[in-house]
Amino acid sequence: MQSTAGERAHFPDSGYAQAGGTLVELAEVRVEMTKMPDLIAAMHSLTGLAASCIAYAVVSEPSAFGLATTGSELPYGNRVELFIGTFIGAITFSGSVIAFGKLSGKYKFHLFQGAPVVYPARGDRSWLRPRGRAHSMRRRN
């Protein structure tokens, strides 16, 4: 990539990207095809963790990313975007860790057993029912 002055642009993170790509390539070569879903689940968990960590870094130092000047607040749109990114990244991370544990079958932790993960209030849909005066005033036959 060329800059306007004719100098070659330098991306300091390109070395990390190359190192990560090399590690992934080594893992793919050594993993059997029957264990490929385990590898994909592990890689997706790292993707979710990276999304959450990046969002945390941006919130901690927005001026380093050019989103706000030092000492000023993040714009509202960026805060919403970072919240959504953190939320989706955390769900991706936790779900992929559970998927990896279930697919590998090596771990005896209760979340990694063959049964589906069931949360306590799963069947409770009371939050969907209308509340307040409008609900009590509905027409009864």
Question: What is the helical fraction, as a range of percent?
Answer: 40-55%
Number of helices, where a helix is a run of at least 4 consecutive DSSP H or I residues: 4
How confident overall, as mean pLDDT?
Answer: 77
| pLDDT < 50 stretches | none
Main sheet: strands, sense, barrel: none
SSE pattern: HHHH
Structural class determined from secondary elements: mainly alpha
**Alpha-carbon Rg, integer:** 23 Å
Q: Count the strands? A: 0
State which percent range the strand residues make up: under 5%
Distance between the termini: 74 Å
Q: Rough shape?
A: flat
Domain NADP transhydrogenase beta-like: 19-108
Transmembrane segments: 39-59, 82-101
Keywords: Membrane, NAD, Transmembrane, Transmembrane helix
Protein name: NAD(P) transhydrogenase subunit beta
